[in-house]
Structures are given as structure tokens and as C-alpha cells.
Amino acid sequence: MADANRFKALLLSLVRIMVGVLLGIFILLLLLYIFQDKLIFFPQTLTADEADRIAKRYSHSSQIENIGLKSEKGICIRGWFVKNSTLKESPLIIYFGGNAEEVSYLIFHTDKIKGWSLALMNYRGYGLSEGKPTEKNLYTDAISIYDYFTKRDDIDKKRIVVMGRSLGTGVATYLAKMRPVKALILVSPYDSLLSVAKEHFPFLPVKLLLRHRFDSLSRAPFISAPLLVLVASEDNIIRISHSKKLAEKWGGEHSLIIVEGEDHNTIHDREIYWKTINEFLVKF
User: What pTM was computed for the model?
Assistant: First the structure.
């Protein structure tokens, strides 16, 4: 009888442990689901002083224009328009950055791209832009940005190129499916965020947890605009295999260039990066 009681006590203890473990896993998964936005988006803001310094630095230049435009529900997204003043109607590159990228630093690099104007707009919650970043919000704002710039008299509406980096490649791909573009430049692109998450977290049910899918692969076959893909040989965040999958499904001409010796965050440090972009753009 004593042995039977000990067995029941042991069994009860095991059940309690299992319930505790399962409850702990459930709570962990619930927290991951609730707070996944903080794992995907890393808003980099600008203080008023930083924004003022940028404004003063370029106050003498007629080529740098501060932009604030209203998107869905009156949310104001802000950034800069860097003009190519040599043409009455300039071709335009619309740029979408990475998940931790505040785009003002690119103003310093615009002279590396020849003959094009650039739209550098921060995502919601980034820079001085209002609101909260989500997949849906980034898509909505991309359409608003495109529609705003294509209504300007100083933009050649037939020569719009969309450029995205990392997270922004999903936004750029979405925009290219929804609006006519001349070409795309995708830097460190993925097939889908779900695919990347599965690779990094194979022990988690990411298919059930992930709300922001950024499924570029499903859109790729429907986009016929020429594509340039730039990837870093040492990229361990978005592996080259993900970029290749996207390129292989593309509905138009595409080329993939590997920048040797660089990683996800340093790919733009090599001269070949800018050289390849300019050689691609000159075709359009």
C-alpha cells in the first residue's frame, strides 16, 4: 500500500511538472506573439535637435527638401527629397530601409548615385514620422509615397525605380506589384520573413506566431520590371539562399551580384556596390 501511495505521489509530481512546463511554453509563445513587433521593428528616432542640425546643414541647398506627407488616417510620415536639379523632370529612386534604419544618413551618400533624385522617407515611428510600424502600415505608406511623388511636376513618372534594403525589400516588392515601376534594386532581400524566421528559430511554431509575413516570393512572378539583387557573401541574417529563391521566381529580367567580404550591415562599404547600382540605373 505504501508503494502504491509513493507511486501515485510520484505520478502526481510528474504531472504537475509537465503541466508547469507546458504552461511555461504557452506563456512564452503568447509573449512572443504579443511582442513580436519589438523583435521585427527597431524604430530609430530623431530628436528635435538632430533634425534641426540636419536642416541647418542643408539649409543652403535647394537640392534637399524636407517632406511631410499624410498617409492613412492622417498619419504624417517624414523624410527628405534629394533633387537632381539638372533635369526639369528627374527620374526618381524611392528607397525603403532596413528594420533598424533611420534614412537621414543616406543624404550624405546621394552623390554616389548619378543622375537620379531620391525619396528618403522614414517608416512610421522612425525619424520624425508618426505612428507605429506594421507590415500593413508600411505597405499603405509606400503607396502614399509613390502617389505623392508621381504627382509632382519635377518627377519623370515613367522613370521610377524602387530600392529596398533588408526589411525594406518586402515593402519595395509590394509597391512594385501595386504600382508601375521602371526597375527594382533589392539589397539583401528575402523570399519571405516567415522563411527567414523558420531558419533562425526552427524550434518555434513561427508559422502560427508570425503576423508580419512580408511574403515577397508570392508577388515576385507577377512583377515584370527588371531586378538587380545585391547580396553580401558573409550575410548571416538573410542568407544568400533566400535572395536566390526570390530572384529565381521573378517575373522579369534579373541579375544577382555577390559583394565579397561584406556582411548584412557593411555591404554598402564596397565601391562595387555603388558601381553596380549606377551601371544598372544607366539602362533606364
Answer: 0.90
Residues 107 and 5 in one domain: no
Q: Which domain, by its residues, includes 130?
A: 43-281
pLDDT tens-digit series, residues 204-253: 888 888 899 999 999 999 999 999 999 999 999 999 999 999 999 999 99
Q: Kindly list the distances between the CA atom of residue 48 and the CA atoms of 53, 127, 188, 218, in Å, as whole numbers in the listed order.
A: 9, 10, 31, 40
**What residues contact residue 277 under an 8 Å CB cut-off, 6+ apart?**
113, 185, 228, 230
What are the strands of the beta sheet with 76-82, ordered from one edge? 64-70, 76-82, 117-121, 90-96, 155-165, 183-187, 227-232, 254-259
Residues 116 and 28 in one domain: no
Retrieve residue 69's grid coordinates: 506627407
